Each structure stands twice: as structure tokens, then as C-alpha cells.
Amino acid sequence: MLTAMFRTAARALGIRHGREILTLAIPTILGMLSHTLMWAVDSAFLGHVSALALGAAGLGGLITWTVYCFFNGVTRVASTFVSQANGRGDDEAVAVYTWQGVYVAIVAGAILTLVGLRSDLILSLTGNSAEVQSAAASYMQIRMYSAIATQLTMTLSGFFQGRKDVKTPMYAGIAANALNIVLDYVMIFGVAGFPAMGIEGAAIATSIANSLNALILVWFAFVPAALRTRYRIHVPRGIDRTRMGRLIRVGAPLSFAELVDMISFSTFTAIIGQRGEAALAASQITVQLISFSFMPVWGITTAATVLVGNEIGKRDHDRAERLAIETYRIAFLYTLVIGGVLVLVREPLFSIFTSDASVLAYAAVLGLLAALFQVFDALRMIGIGVLQGAGDTRFPSILAAVVLFGIFVPCTWAVVALRGGGVVEAWFVGSFSYLLMAAGIYLRFRTGAWKRIDLSEA
What is the structure's pLDDT at 2? Predict the structure, then answer.
């Protein structure tokens, strides 16, 4: 019945290529959902250790990803070049761009690992209590031991997804998530002879699981005979300055935009943390609830990037635009469903993560704000994915800087620090800010400026 309702709604919204889009999106969604569950499982287990552990892991996880954002765009943008090369039938370019991404991933991961060793210095800037800083610093340091694996996962996922092979990354993500669940239980609480390591156990489990994810992708990229024959992917390509330059030129704005996003959200979290452990934990649970929309929509976003990139590689900009519009509509329909669930069962969902009454007191209002926020965030993401497929990455980065640094962060600080507001008021500011970004990116898409960008090698 639910499927029939979804199909009826899809037809009403003018979605005609839903099967083509979802064939790419659903495996990607499942793979991305496995990563959502990885962090959610960490949070659910740690919520039953203490509010301190839950809040510190949330803060540490956000800042870890913030630091990763210095390089994420460059390692992830390989999917744009692979998809366009695949669209024009250039197998050698597929392999060369993948190898450029691998080089960037290894160097970036090594730098990030070194940064993780001094995570205490980063945490000292947050203004949180000494206990929260210490726990979050331990979590960050351990998580960043798997930085090379995480960056390789992004590049190699782009190799598979850009060629419309979305199942391999899905299977790798699910396997990694399954391992994380087992290791979380064993290491957080102390099972099978392991000591109870709490938040450090959660970080170790996640790092091992991320490493497994990367190893699976490395195996399936370089070992299968079909790929070795068609792309000769197993033969290392040297650094190609021209193509590396293109990768960095298009990927750097993506990294900047993601960095701005995460710095602002980490600052947002740190400001909330000044209102106490209960407020910080409640905000972390809100992030987890939103992530059940965020990561699947990221899957739809990946489909948008690949489809737009492939069609541009074929020089069919009109079809690229039609597919882009339909991915927007699918994401909107999906977030309406998720929003309805969050509104109806927000308090029981909060109780999964904690039994602390002081945290649960925020559930009713934050659940409503989570339902609203995830719609705006999803539309923002889809627009970025569409523009990325065309190589249009500068405008979203400029818009992110203007809105997040000009409105989101200062207004959150003013509401909380100057006016004495709390976590609820902060999330109102966040919802409005992401609405502005979603609207700005959609207007950019409708101008058609992305159609005039040429990444071809002709």
C-alpha cells in the first residue's frame, strides 16, 4: 500500500524517470544508511553509558568530520570526472582520474592522522567543560587513525558510482556497519574478555569498520579481471598535472563548502554545549534523527551527480536537466515521509538514545524542528549534487560562506549567548539558515549557468 501511495505521489509530481534514478539511488542509499547506522549505533550505545559520553562523541565526531572536510571535496569529486568520462566512453580517463584521487586520498589521510594526534588543541577552542574536552579528544584521535581509509573510500566510491556501479560501495558499507555493531557492543561495554572502554571503544570500533570498508573497495577495484582488462586500473598511473589540476580546481570549492558547513555546525554544537550536558546530548540526538534523512538523501544526491555527469558527457544537457528536476522531486517526497515519521514518533525515537529525563524534556520540540530542518537540508544537498555533476562547485561554496558565517553562526551565538536562549532557539536559527541555502542553490540551478561549464578534454 505504501509503495502504491508513493507511486501515485510520484506521478502527481511529474516524476517519469523514477526507476532510472532509484536504480542508482537505492543501493547508494543503503550503503550511506549503513554509515548513518554506524554513528547512530555508537550514539545509542553511548547514551546508555552517560550523557557525557553521548555528548562528547557527538562533538568529537562533528569536529573529526570538520577536519576531514579540508580534503573531502577533492577526494570525492573524482565521481564527477569519472561519470563524465564514462558518459563519453573514455576508459583511460576513468582510470587516470581515479588514480589522481587515490594519490590525494593517501596524502590527505596522512595529514589528517597527524592532526588527530593534537585533537586536544582543537577541543580547547570549544569552551566545553574539561571532562567533555578530554573525552571528545580521545574519541577524535582514535577515529582519525582511519583517516587514510576514509579518504580512499571516498575516491574509490567515486570510481564505482561514476560508472553506475552502486552495489559494490553498498555491500562494502553494509559489511563495515555490521562489524561496527559487533565491535561497539564488545568494546563499549566489555564483552568476550574485552575491558569496558566506553567512548574509546566506540572510536576503535568505528576506525576498524572504516578500514574494512576501504579494504573491500580496494579489492574490488583492482582485482576483478573485467576491470583489469577494460580500464587497466591495476596499473598505477603517474601524477598527471593537467588532470590533477582539474580535480583540485573543481574539488577545492566542494571542500571549502563542506568545511564551512562543518565548522559552522561544530561551532553551533559548541555554543549549545555551553548550556550543559543535557542540551548537548539533546542536540546530538536531533542530529542523529536528521541523519536518517541526510544519508539516504546523500544517496539520491550521488545519483543526481552521476546522472547529470553522464548526460553532460554525452552532450545531452536537456536530459540532464530533466533528471535533475526529478531527483529534486524524489528527495522532496522522501523528506515529507521522514518528516511525518519524526513528527508522529519523535518522543519514542529520543528514548532510544537515552533514558535521561533532562534530555528527553527537549524531545517534543526538537523532534518537530528535526522534521523541518531535514527538508531544507535535503533540497540543499540535491542542488549541490546536480551542480557538482556539471562541475559547478564555486557558487555553492560562496553561498555557504555567506549564509553560514554571516547568518547561522552569529545568530546562534546572539540567541544563545546574548539573549539567554537554549538548544531549541538554536535549532530554529539552523532551520532558517538551511532554508536560505536551499533556495539560493535552486535559483542557481534554474538559471542554467551550469550548462555552460565544460570539463571535457576535447
Answer: 47
**Lowest mean pLDDT segment, chosen from 349-358, 389-398, 407-416:** 349-358
User: Residue 55 is placed in which grid cell?
Assistant: 555528548
Other C-beta atoms within 10 Å of 355: how many?
A: 11
Looking at residue 1, its pLDDT comes to 52
Using a CB cutoff of 8 Å and minimum separation of 24, what contacts does 21-25 make?
Answer: 21/300, 21/303, 21/304, 21/307, 21/323, 21/326, 21/327, 21/330, 22/303, 22/330, 24/161, 24/164, 24/166, 24/302, 24/303, 24/306, 24/307, 25/166, 25/299, 25/300, 25/302, 25/303, 25/327, 25/330
Smallest CA-to-CA distance from 382 within 324, 309, 301 is with 301
Contact 413, 271 (CB under 8 A): yes
Half-sphere exposure of 231 (CA within 13 A, CB side): 26
- Distance from CA of residue 71 to its chain's centroid? 13
Q: In this structure, are residues 78 and 217 in contact, taking their beta carbons and an 8 Å threshold? A: no
261-275 confidence digits (pLDDT tens):
878 887 888 888 777
Q: What average pLDDT score do residues 400-424 get?
A: 89
Residue type, 40: A
- Integer Cα distance of 24 and 161 in angstroms: 8
Per-residue pLDDT reduced to its tens digit, 151-175: 999 999 989 988 988 889 989 988 9
Rounded to two decimals, the pTM is: 0.77
Using the predicted structure, report yes or no on whether residue 457 has a pLDDT greater than 70: no
Among 176, 173, 155, 148, smallest CA distance to 221 is for: 155
Amino acid at 224: P
Contact 289, 335 (CB under 8 A): no
**Local structure of residue 402 (DSSP, 8 states):** I
Is 456 strand, coil or helix?
Answer: coil
| Other Cβ atoms closer than 10 A to 376 | 20
